[in-house]
Design brief:
By secondary structure, the chain is α+β, with helices and mostly antiparallel strands. It is built from seven helices and 13 strands. Helices cover 24% and strands 31% of the residues.
Length: 263
């Protein structure tokens, strides 16, 4: 079974790049929210709000996707998380869409040369948290759109997240490891799905997010975050550290994300 591990933001992650030890655990590390936007879609009208966003508790700093038998195994996976002086909060969420949707994973990361990578994060709602059914026709339309975007090299990955009642939060500190089972009541802090895209700029990412056929609505809220570019930050690490990070990411991609979209 696949789970997404969300590294919740805090003042340290919002101030800049995560430590190399933490970053090596993540499939995607997100830049601070000062370069992010929130997109609200209301009955065909779009409102864009630029970051930074004041409450780190509503943000994530990155995510990993792991393939383990159950939630208990996901908790055990987090016992290897590098503990620092300050507490880190991690959220475990089961992957998948209620009603079923095709997970997308591209054969290579990133997509087009010179493009940037952005995460389009679907903010949760009462209906999403309750897993209120949506028409199958909407899920089919989303799958068809995702297939086209994946073949074009724009969509690198996509999946939904199940209700927080199936998840947990883990707090890791230097001398402590605390597990809190869901459900969680802070709906505005939760993510219900994601799309990882490769486009030239934030404006292109916003335009893509506006066109995306979300199966929920008519009110949809997403947060768009640029991923760290390993090439742009390579000078932060030694060559051995860069090679180790690339190896870890390749292993995560192979072992943690096995379901590929076929068409």
């Amino acid at each position: 079974m696949q789970y997404m591990i969300l590294r919740r933001s805090d003042p340290r992650s919002e101030s800049g790049r995560l430590s190399q030890a933490e970053d090596s655990q993540l499939f995607a590390s997100l830049r601070p929210s000062k370069g992010a936007v929130r997109l609200s879609l209301r009955d065909g009208e779009a409102t864009v709000t630029e970051g930074p966003f004041p409450d780190p508790a509503e943000l994530i700093a990155g995510f990993a996707i792991i393939d383990v038998p159950d939630k208990a195994a996901a908790v055990d996976w987090l016992r290897a998380w590098p503990a620092g002086e300050s507490e880190v909060e991690l959220e475990i969420r089961a992957s998948g869409c209620p009603g079923g949707c095709a997970q997308v994973i591209a054969e290579s990361v990133p997509g087009h040369e010179n493009d940037k990578r952005f995460a389009v994060l679907l903010r949760s709602s009462a209906d999403l948290e309750a897993e209120t059914p949506v028409p199958q026709s909407k899920l089919d339309a989303l799958d068809a759109h995702n297939a086209v975007q994946a073949k074009a090299g724009v969509l690198l990955a996509a999946d939904g997240l199940r209700s927080s009642s199936l998840g947990a939060r883990v707090k890791v500190a230097k001398n402590s490891f605390t597990v809190i089972d869901g459900p969680f009541t802070e709906i505005k802090e939760m993510i219900a799905g994601f799309w990882l895209i490769s486009v030239p700029s934030m404006q292109d990412a916003i335009a893509w997010a506006k066109r995306n056929p979300y199966p929920v609505g008519p009110h949809v809220d997403v947060e768009i975050r640029e991923l760290f570019d390993a090439a742009a930050t390579a000078d932060l690490f030694t060559p051995d550290q860069q090679a180790a990070e690339q190896r870890i990411r390749a292993e995560q991609l192979e072992a943690g994300m096995r379901a590929h979209l076929t068409a």
